[in-house]
Amino acid sequence: MEDICVIGLGYIGLPTSGHLSSKGYNVLGVDTNRDIIEALKNGHVLIEEPDLKTLIKDSIHRGKLSFSLEPQKSDAFIIAVPTPIFENHTANLDYVKQAIRNILPYLEKGNLIIVESTIPPRTIDDVVVPLLQEGGFSPQLDEVFVAHCPERVIPGRILVELNENTRVVGGYTEQATRKAANLYRDVIQGDVYETSAVTAEMVKLMENTYRDVNIALANELAKISHHLGVNAHDVVELANMHPRVNLHQPGPGVGGHCISVDPYFIIEKAQDLSPLMQTARKVNLSMPDFVVEQIENMIHKNKQSTISVLGLTYKGNTDDLRESPALIIVDKLISKGYHVKCHDPHVKQNMTDLDLFSLEESLTGADIAVILADHNAFKRIESSIFTKHMGTPTIFDTKSCLQELNGVKLYQIGDLSEYSDSKYINRVSS
Q1: Which of 204, 315, 341, 399 is catalytic?
Q2: pTM value?
Q3: pLDDT(405) > 90
């Protein structure tokens, strides 16, 4: 196997293309977005990710990586297209279906087809395989080899985790499983585990559903602690001293294309059997309203107030805005009539319809600053920045970025009394 065609050049497809080409494969990256293809052909990488630009440029220079709007004949095809959800929270598989249809004219017997896109259980069996059969190929007879290998990387560490993380490979047949698993063993350092396609589908979904449920538990704790006058952060810290407890910190909600979406892929297949998953989703979806309510309490619902929002991405130190709760919070504040000024050092103006400001501009004249992303830049902010630009500096830190600041009234999402070191314990972080 020498030639690999990667369909979809987003947050997974592009790094995957670069990684495979760095391992000696001839890779063609395909996307239907003409602007993306033209930018990449000119050496412009539009995704912010450590070392990605260097990797892509080097692979292009060595002649191992090229880009096109159309697939071409290859030994293997990797599908890495988006799988968004409809308004009714069911999976939109249109991109996956179209990707399969697009490669059909270029398929040959013996080709390997791997779907890395996150998909509901039985998508390989009930959607992908029938499409290939309609195209004249029989995955049952291994005329083509079909497998699912879900990506399991995190923005900010994608290239590292592409190489080091374990991978779960589930084939439609045993031979497809082995063939796909051997490809990954050739290009990664992590272990590769073989299973069935439907098991691999469920593994990825449960990884993120597990995280969603545990985040919901922390967020519910924050609400209960506010009701009872308890510092949730102290509760988490002390509870985590138990050797078998690992509570998360509360936050403004859940974003990204994984944790905030994947549980729905299971729920849609088993509505009556997933009450816990559904409740966790409801709790996490409620957090933007909770944050807005607290902001309004802090500014006494003064519609003349100016609110500085620091951070728009769903995850720190990335430019990823997908499903970000920060965007929901900003939209709700604007709809209520507040003047909102946004700053995010990782987001470019052409990525959002919101007007972006420098840190100083966003704070100037603001009645409150709300931290909604845990960027390292925010963790290094000194109190003088707030005291210089804000009249009465008030900070609502929903991401636990800041410790006590001189001359600043600081609130945290799990401790909505004025911040001070706990009267009862010495904090581990101090």
Answers
A1: 204
A2: 0.91
A3: no
